[in-house]
Amino acid sequence: MTNSNPVSLNAYEYLDNVGPEEQARLAAVRRYRLVDQPVEDAYDRIAFVAGAIFDTPIATVSLVEQDRVWLAACQGLSGVREVGKEPGLCASVIAQDDVYVINNAAVDPRTLEHPLVRGELGLRFYAAAPIRTHDGYRLGTVNVIDNRPREATPKQLKALEHLASMVSDELELRLMVIRSAAAEQRMRETVS
């Protein structure tokens, strides 16, 4: 069977790319110390609002790691915290600055062979905005998923971008707390 998907040849090369740019992006993901942590209310609320705006059954806040996609929050998929190394939609989003939309994945050449489209989930609609740090790294996405095709309005897509910016702001607050705690620890060790 030949694959007629023109994007598929190198569409997910990020998974094996550990060049300097990807190393810097991964360092940015890790500096927030959110991967492998329990769900925090702020991210859970953002995922909930994203799903409500689009009226989709699934919405997530994700961080793209080297070998997996970590779900910092997930509405609509009980117990799912990460997606494996297989090709992922979130990775396509972090490769660009704009909102990424698939109205009908069953006929979109970018997703015809995707496991979430062909598998049990039956993904048909996907919209995601990249989470960009203040220093320019794209860490992950705020995304919405449905098992039926649909169109997104410009207002919904703008709202998704704002939610991604809110995640970025929350991450910066988290980083300030991490740095403050580290500085306090260093001070205590100096005094001791």
TrEMBL record:
Domain GAF positions: 38-181
| InterPro entries on file | GAF (IPR003018), GAF-like_dom_sf (IPR029016)
Note the SMART domains from the entry.
Answer: GAF
* Gene3D superfamilies the UniProt entry points to: 3.30.450.40
What name has this protein been given in UniProt? GAF domain-containing protein
Taxonomic lineage is: Bacteria, Bacillati, Actinomycetota, Actinomycetes, Micromonosporales
